[in-house]
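Customer escalation, tier 2.

The customer says the design service returned an amino acid string that "doesn't look like it belongs to this structure." They asked us to rerun it and document both sides in this ticket. The original structure tokens are below, unchanged.
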């Protein structure tokens, strides 16, 4: 494909993307394919000679679309939003064209400088403590990671290195392996599974602690766990506080957890991957009360800020704990060293880095803070519309109080009935929902995900839920009648 062909074919792709997004309601949200479906649609081996663009382009519809889950559909209510918008798509196209790998300042100065600026912009939108911002000229700062899972692993690894260094500085008889065997960290039993996985990857012990009736981890529970471990000779070193858990959108008591971490000198990491974005709205900023205690804080703009995957923002109060333990500089990168600059290759697992700050810049400029606030408030309003539909139907119950954008509800009855209702919904493929378990009960999560979701889409999804519920309840009534006679 040469430049002139690219001008033509590129426009085809832009038209396809625009049509797809504008007409996304025409697609059933869930595909009707089986694992390995694609093998019958494409050859077993790559073509020896190149094929024409026309053949490639027409196979988007024949091969790709049949296996798509339409995450940006206004009728997709699973997981969390997978943010997208035309500005972020444009930024990704430009980033792909530039093809930079911004591992150091010298590798591409604009990549580093813009990333630092965007992390400060977002930090100020959230009213994060000055300690987290580059503009404070302190030791803190922010970085874009691929995802929240990677960010949590990095924070835990930094805390682990800090703990080992601190112990060995006072008692050189301790070996790394002996210390590692005794290290323990804590999180809510509602925390994302990646929190536990980080411990498996790092070789340290994770304690998942019980929550209260609101599924919130309290400081008193954390303190009791720390006291017990210390009495047994273990070494607590790291705590994860969750704001808006994946399972239930529960919120840990960040202020109380932070106070305990400060008292015990533990690294406090806050995972606000989903809910944190809402805190750019003044009415939701209270959810971040206690963030001043955090040593690291993460938020995924890809979930609720119209920025597509991948882009997870992470702030640390002291970047020395990221840079110093993991700073390896081979000969072929020594010429890239610059005093007083940030080399982001030291701030994460990967060396190579995409130009992800570009899409933050495009979205923040084109929507503005007010536009992003309007978008989040619209989602919150729509989820309350759904909540009212549930509350006004005596067949259903809401399991947890609604805080932001996730309703956890269930059909009054058995787990089997709820699972069967969800199966019927999935088979129709018109909306997408996910189940979970709360206090041992099967519940269904309803999340407003699509950028262009409207009240009519909420009603459409509600009708699908009611249709499935009617089938379950009518079947149950018929069974009851047969048993009576």
């Amino acid at each position: 494909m040469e430049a002139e062909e690219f001008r033509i074919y590129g426009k085809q792709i832009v038209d396809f993307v625009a049509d797809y997004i504008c007409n996304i309601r025409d697609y059933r949200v869930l595909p009707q394919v089986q694992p390995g479906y694609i093998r019958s649609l494409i050859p077993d081996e790559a073509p020896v000679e190149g094929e024409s663009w026309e053949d490639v382009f027409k196979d988007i519809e024949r091969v790709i679309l049949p296996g798509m889950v339409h995450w940006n559909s206004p009728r997709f209510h699973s997981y969390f939003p997978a943010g997208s918008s035309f500005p972020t798509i444009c930024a990704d196209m430009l980033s792909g064209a530039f093809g930079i790998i911004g591992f150091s300042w010298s590798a591409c100065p604009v990549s580093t400088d813009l990333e630092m600026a965007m992390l400060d912009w977002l930090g100020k939108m959230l009213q994060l403590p000055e300690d987290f911002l580059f503009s404070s000229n302190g030791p803190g700062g922010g970085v874009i990671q691929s995802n929240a899972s990677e960010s949590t692993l990095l924070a835990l690894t930094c805390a682990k290195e800090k703990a080992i260094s601190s112990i060995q500085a006072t008692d050189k008889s301790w070996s790394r392996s002996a210390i590692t065997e005794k290290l323990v960290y804590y999180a809510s039993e509602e925390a994302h599974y990646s929190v536990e996985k980080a411990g498996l990857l790092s070789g340290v012990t994770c304690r998942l602690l019980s929550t209260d009736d609101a599924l919130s981890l309290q400081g008193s529970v954390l303190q009791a766990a720390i006291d017990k471990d210390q009495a047994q000779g273990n070494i607590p070193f790291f705590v994860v506080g969750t704001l808006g858990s994946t399972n239930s959108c529960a919120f840990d008591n960040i202020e109380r957890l932070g106070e305990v971490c400060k008292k015990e000198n533990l690294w406090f990491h806050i995972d606000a991957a989903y809910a944190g974005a809402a805190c750019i709205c003044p009415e939701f900023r209270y959810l971040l009360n206690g963030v001043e205690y955090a040593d690291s804080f993460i938020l995924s703009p890809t979930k609720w800020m119209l920025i597509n995957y991948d882009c997870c923002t992470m702030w640390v109060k002291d970047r020395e704990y990221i840079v110093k333990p993991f700073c390896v500089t081979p000969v072929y990168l020594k010429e890239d060293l610059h005093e007083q600059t940030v080399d982001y290759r030291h701030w994460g697992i990967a060396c190579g880095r995409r130009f992800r700050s570009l899409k933050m810049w495009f979205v923040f400029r084109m929507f503005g803070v007010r536009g992003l606030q309007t978008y989040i408030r619209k989602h919150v309003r729509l989820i309350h519309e759904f909540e009212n539909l549930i509350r006004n139907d005596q067949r259903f119950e809401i399991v947890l109080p609604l805080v932001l954008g996730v309703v956890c509800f269930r059909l009054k009855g058995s787990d089997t009935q709820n699972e069967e209702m969800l199966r019927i919904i999935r088979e129709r493929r018109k909306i997408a929902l996910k189940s979970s378990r709360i206090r041992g009960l099967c519940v269904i999560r309803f999340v407003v995900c699509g950028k262009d979701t409207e009240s009519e889409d909420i009603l459409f999804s509600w009708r699908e839920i009611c249709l499935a519920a009617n089938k379950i309840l009518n079947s149950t009534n018929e069974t009851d009648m047969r048993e009576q006679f």
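Tier 2 assessment: The sequence is consistent with the input. The radius of gyration is 25 Å. The longest strand covers residues 235-242. Sent an explanation to the customer and offered a walkthrough call.
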